[in-house]
């Protein structure tokens, strides 16, 4: 095998594919990046649960396959000078040259690398910006605790041209609704996709549309020459919609940017796992934190309150995750009492809110 490729193009593709390489592979070949040269260059990684494949243009002189240690190739690629890269296989080595730099990398047996999963049938497409935005809004509410796999996923419910994403870690629920372009108007499917995979896919988007594919226990996502497949989680999930449709007696509309900035400032004096306290009155919300060994902080932000005055407290980072997900100028905070969860949502005018975030309140000491 012999090919030549742009350094920047190679480094970008290697870094993208190598992100799924396991830190502790169950077999050594899973630490490798499979490079196949045909009329284009394909770079792939696979750990039996997640696969990533990038296709890029290259000047291929001799077609072939090679399996190279992925993390090492990623480190080398991003450190190379700004010149074209040539890779040639000779015996058990892949010789990489770029300018005057040369590396001889010991290859691994290609035949031992597992067969990459095929992309399941496509069921529709989403604009890259909409997809990335929805994942960014919902993913913070997913859990990092693998003992309950359901909580580490993002639920996708698809019916016709409507898509709903949701995630929860038991302390908050984030949900986002949006439209897409289904392959069939009668499509109706649900899937639990690992949140970490969707986050990585969203980070890598470079425009265009995202093709969504679903098969037997596998989901696939493809955009601009890059594709990812992932084994789905169990479909079991809570009835989150019922928990987001309460009748709220108190509603406060507040401008997102000054509210977020004020919370971040006041939270500087909040000790770990202590609350940010919010006191809503007719024209303002008083933000308070601290009072212990570090100190205390307060700040006032304007708001439009409908309903009775209320004092309520939250974990600051939980509240900020919800507010950061709001894409409209105003955020609406729906409340019932100081001991009940609150619902943060966007304020899109006459339309139904697309983003909703339910967060538990804390007892105030």
Question: Radius of gyration in whole Å, from Cα?
Answer: 25 Å
Pairing-aware structural class of the strands and helices? alpha+beta
- β-strand percent reads 35-45%
Helical amount: 10-25%
How many β-strand runs?
Answer: 27
**In this structure, how is the largest beta sheet organized?**
9 strands, antiparallel
The general outline is elongated
Reading side by side through the largest sheet, how are the strands ordered?
6-2-3-4-18-17-16-10-14
Poorly predicted runs are: none
Number of helices: 7
Kindly state the mean pLDDT as a whole number? 93
Distance between the termini: 68 Å
Could you characterize the architecture of this molecule?
With 365 residues, the protein is α+β, with helices and mostly antiparallel strands. Helix content is 19%, strand content 43%. It is built from 7 helices and 27 strands. The strands form 4 sheets. Strands 6-2-3-4-18-17-16-10-14 form a 9-stranded antiparallel beta sheet. A hairpin with a 2-residue loop joins strand 11 and strand 12. The longest helix is centred in the N-terminal third of the chain and has 12 residues. The N and C termini lie far apart (68 Å).
């Amino acid at each position: 095998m012999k090919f030549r490729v742009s350094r920047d193009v190679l480094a970008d593709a290697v870094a993208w594919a190598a992100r799924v390489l396991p830190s502790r592979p169950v077999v050594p070949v899973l630490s490798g990046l499979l490079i196949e040269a045909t009329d284009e260059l394909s770079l792939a990684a696979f750990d039996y649960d997640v696969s990533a494949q990038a296709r890029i243009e290259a000047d291929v002189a001799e077609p072939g396959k090679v399996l190279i240690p992925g993390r090492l190739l990623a480190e080398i690629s991003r450190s190379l000078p700004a010149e074209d890269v040539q890779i040639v296989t000779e015996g058990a080595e892949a010789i990489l040259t770029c300018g005057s730099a040369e590396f001889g990398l010991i290859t691994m047996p290609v035949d031992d690398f597992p067969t990459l999963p095929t992309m399941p049938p496509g069921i529709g497409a989403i604009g890259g910006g909409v997809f990335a935005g929805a994942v960014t809004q919902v993913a913070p509410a997913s859990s990092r605790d693998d003992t309950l796999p359901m909580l580490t996923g993002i639920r996708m419910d698809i019916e016709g041209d409507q898509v709903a994403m949701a995630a929860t870690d038991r302390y908050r629920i984030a949900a986002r609704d949006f439209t897409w372009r289904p392959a069939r108007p009668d499509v109706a499917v649900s899937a639990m996709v690992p949140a970490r995979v969707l986050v990585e896919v969203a980070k890598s988007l470079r425009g265009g549309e995202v093709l969504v594919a679903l098969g037997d226990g596998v989901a696939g996502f493809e955009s601009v020459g890059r594709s990812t497949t992932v084994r789905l989680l169990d479909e079991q999930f809570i009835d989150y919609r019922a928990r987001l449709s309460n009748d709220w007696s108190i509603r406060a509309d507040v401008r997102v940017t000054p509210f977020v900035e004020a919370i971040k400032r006041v939270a500087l004096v909040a000790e770990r796992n202590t609350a940010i306290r919010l006191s809503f009155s007719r024209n303002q919300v008083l933000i308070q934190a601290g009072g212990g060994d570090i100190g205390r902080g307060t700040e006032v932000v304007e708001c439009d309150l409908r309903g009775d005055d209320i004092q309520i407290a939250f974990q600051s980072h939980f509240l900020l995750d919800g507010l950061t997900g709001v894409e409209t100028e105003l955020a609406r905070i729906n409340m019932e009492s100081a001991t009940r969860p609150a619902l943060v949502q966007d304020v899109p005018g006459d339309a139904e809110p697309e983003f909703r975030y339910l967060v538990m309140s804390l007892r105030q000491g």
